[in-house]
Amino acid sequence: MKGNRLIYGMILTLIILIFLSENSTKLKSGDIAFVGFNANNDSFEIITFINIPPKTSIHFTDSEWNGNRFGADENDLVWETGEEIISKGSIIKFTSLGSNPIVSSGTLKNTLRISKKEEAIFAYVGSTKMPTKFLAAMANDKLGYGTLLNTGLDNKSVLTFPKGTTYATYKGHHNYQNVNEYIVALNKISNYTFQ
Question: Count of domains in the chain?
């Protein structure tokens, strides 16, 4: 009887570990979107379009993508979402990223400095510099991306502000009935406040 409990316990532990390791890989392009950034104080915001499972890791980098890999000369930030589900429609704020990173839910590892020109930020799952799935991207100049080739990102999951933008935040409402309407609104530059 004790042997069976031990086996059942080991199987249950294995199932939990597999579930937790797969949380991040279930995310796909467009499950989150950027809704603003501030290069003056190294901050940005995202919105979630799905419930993000507990203990999910999402990477952010401002390295350029060359179609196959990221450059090694920029910053990498890892967001650990924490023990609770991040509910669909949540706005997550990332602040003071260049020196003392703070996130409104979960924890952060490393720092990320946002440049005032030719900057892009990619969100992805995988490991540092090794994406398995790109989720979204944002830039203040299309040159900041390097390229979007082989990212699987489209105009619904990429937000490019006018060249030289240092601050932009979404000013539209958040109570859309479906995700597609919301994405259309997020991609209208007229729905943003600039400084």
Answer: 1
Q: pTM, whole model, 2 decimals? A: 0.86
| CA distance linking residue 45 with residue 51, whole number of Å | 17
Helix (H) or strand (E) holding 22: helix 2-22
Cα separation, 145 vs 141, in Å, equals 8
Dump pLDDT digits (tens) for 43-96. 999 999 999 999 999 999 999 999 999 998 899 999 999 999 999 999 999 999
CB atoms within 10 A of CB 64: 19
How are the residues of the chain apportioned to helix, strand and coil, as percentages rounded to the nearest 5? 20, 35, 45
Domain assignment of residue 86, given as a range: 2-194
Of 37, 33, 31, 29, the closest CA to residue 161 belongs to 37
